[in-house]
Design the sequence.
């Protein structure tokens, strides 16, 4: 299959097997492993495209389900596609809408054809199928689009998961058949199977037979313990083609990014850094910092003394706390910028460690400094 998405392996870390690579897209190339900021409604909340560019983001994620409902894919198509609509020159990955639809568990009905559900905004009846998910993403014009998959709950029985995996495989075939622009948009498949090794293997084999330009690991970061996620990655990533990008969906805590990279993952996305930023929670080199706490009211130091982002160079904890406490948008902008910068810089450090064959050592140093080795360590 000719594809606009190409993966180039640069080197493998001798300590861990992590991959340093480059993904080439119609809207530029980006080095991996990388983190993708999430711009659900064609914007990363409170960030401008210029902000994202200045922090080193080369690819962002946008949400098919939400853009279908508002403003509608037809308006975005009329604007010349998502890149022009939001004035973003870098690469864009769109999810299929499946995760959002399956999150509406009390409002949906799954059939072989697709999913019947109600619009979460106004209760209107809607239907999303593999074909519809492809049509919306073709109209949005993203560089990477995701196959429509069933997102089973955690935990689920082996029997339920087997049926779900088989349906996801059939839906992936329908997605490929319905994909109208394979020359300019790359379609990635999503490997499901929960924590069952035999089902992950079955899902991977089914999807790899379609020869798609990239593959994702889905169904993780849904409430399972970290050791389960790592174990699933240990037996799933070796099943994925080494000449194509590997994407772990919905993961954004620093420890999981490092653990994922060590297990051969190239791409990550998560709303975590932006969502916690709006609560006044910041990621720092020595762990999380809740800047809205009273103890920072007279703290005139930066969020993170080891960070060189423009927020840490120019604004104090006391000022940012004041803004967050007063619900000032500028406060959310500052914490969001810092958190995204922190994760993008972390991935840069991961890539450098792979270049130097020392990712295992880097993990130990980072976990120690971040406080992840403590018995009561928080996830972020």
Sequence:
């Amino acid at each position: 299959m000719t594809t606009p998405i190409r993966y180039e392996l640069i080197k493998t870390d001798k300590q861990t097997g992590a991959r340093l690579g480059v993904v080439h897209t119609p809207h530029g190339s980006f080095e991996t492993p990388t983190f993708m900021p999430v711009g659900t409604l064609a914007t990363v909340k409170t960030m401008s495209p210029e902000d994202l560019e200045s922090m080193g983001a080369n690819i962002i994620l946008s949400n098919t389900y939400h853009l279908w409902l508002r403003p509608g894919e037809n308006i975005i198509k009329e604007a010349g596609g998502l890149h022009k609509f939001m004035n973003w020159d870098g690469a864009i990955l769109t999810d299929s809408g499946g995760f959002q639809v399956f999150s509406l568990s009390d409002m949906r009905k799954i059939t072989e054809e697709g999913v019947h559900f109600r619009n979460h905004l106004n209760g209107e009846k809607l239907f999303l199928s593999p074909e519809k998910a492809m049509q919306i993403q073709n109209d949005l014009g993203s560089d990477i689009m995701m196959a429509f998959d069933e997102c089973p709950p955690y935990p689920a029985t082996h029997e339920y998961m087997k049926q779900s995996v088989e349906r996801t495989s059939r839906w992936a075939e329908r997605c490929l058949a319905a994909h109208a622009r394979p020359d300019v948009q790359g379609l990635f498949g999503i490997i499901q199977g929960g924590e069952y090794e035999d089902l992950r293997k079955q899902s991977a084999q089914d999807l790899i037979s379609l020869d798609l330009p990239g593959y994702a690991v889905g169904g993780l970061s849904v409430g399972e313990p970290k050791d389960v996620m790592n174990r699933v990655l240990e037996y799933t990533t070796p099943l994925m083609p080494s000449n194509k990008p590997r994407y772990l969906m919905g993961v954004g805590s620093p420890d999981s990014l490092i653990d994922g990279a060590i297990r051969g993952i190239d791409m990550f996305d998560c709303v975590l850094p932006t969502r916690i930023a709006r609560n006044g929670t910041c990621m720092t080199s020595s762990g999380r910092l809740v800047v809205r706490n009273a103890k920072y009211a007279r703290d005139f130091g930066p969020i993170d003394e080891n960070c060189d982002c423009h927020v840490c160079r120019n604004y104090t904890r006391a000022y940012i706390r004041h803004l967050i406490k007063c619900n000032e948008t500028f406060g959310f902008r500052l914490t969001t910028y810092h958190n995204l910068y922190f994760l993008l810089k972390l991935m840069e450090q991961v890539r450098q460690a792979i270049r130097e064959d020392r990712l295992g050592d880097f993990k130990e140093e980072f976990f120690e400094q971040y406080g992840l080795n403590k018995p009561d360590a928080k996830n972020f």
User: Anything to note?
Assistant: The first helix runs from residue 49 to 54. Residues 6-275 form a domain with the TIM Barrel fold (CATH 3.20.20.105). The chain has two domains: 6-275, 277-364.
